[in-house]
Amino acid sequence: MFKRNKLGKKSTFEDAIQHYLEGNIRDSALEFAAWSKANGLAPKQDGDPAEWLIPYKDDCLCWIHFEPKYHFRFFYCDYSGEQDEGFMRAVQDHVMHCTTCHEGPCSGGDAVIFGKAFTNVCKEFTVRFENPDGGTMEHIKQLLAYWKEKGHTSVSYHYHNG
To answer: Rounded distance, CA 150 to CA 143, Å?
Structure first.
């Protein structure tokens, strides 16, 4: 899956999908690309053809990376409220724990995510979906809608500076 990119700065999100992904993952990613454009959430390249973000107003709803693994990263915020049980479980199952990539205020901490307590969660990229398939992509779409409403509660540097 790790292909040193030969894509340029003017590559499209679809170009990146075609370059980095294969099989069912590629198919679901292309469906997501069409959905995101149709819903005003088209990913924007973040300086590198393997790194993308989904802008919303003046902020960033999530990051999408193709290297070294294809994944969506969602930021630290108030994950609470009444939601579909399957959606809440999907988010809880993809909580990312701190790997101490930074010192200081963004180092890991405790969090309650849709009613479930977690320790040592990443305070920047709290939720991470790797190689999402079609079913997982539906949860990602739900999470994007959630972030449109709750993103302002984020303390993540990357949400506000994407």
So the answer is: 10
Sign, CA torsion 32/76/19/42: positive
pLDDT tens for residues 20-51? 999 999 999 999 999 999 999 999 998 888 99
Q: How confident is the model at residue 2 (pLDDT cuts 50, 70, 90)?
A: very low
Quick: pLDDT tens for 48-72.
889 999 998 888 889 999 998 999 9
CA 109 from chain centre, in angstroms, equals 20
Q: Could you list the beta-strand ranges (E) of the chain.
A: 44-48, 51-56, 59-65, 71-74, 109-113, 116-121, 127-130
Burial 59-95 (b: 16+ CB within 10 A, else e): bbbbbbbbbeebbbbbbbbebeeebeeebbebbeebb
- Which token pair is 53? 């973000």
Sequence-separated (6 or more) residues with CB below 8 Å from residue 155 = 76, 77, 123
d(CA 58, CA 73): 18
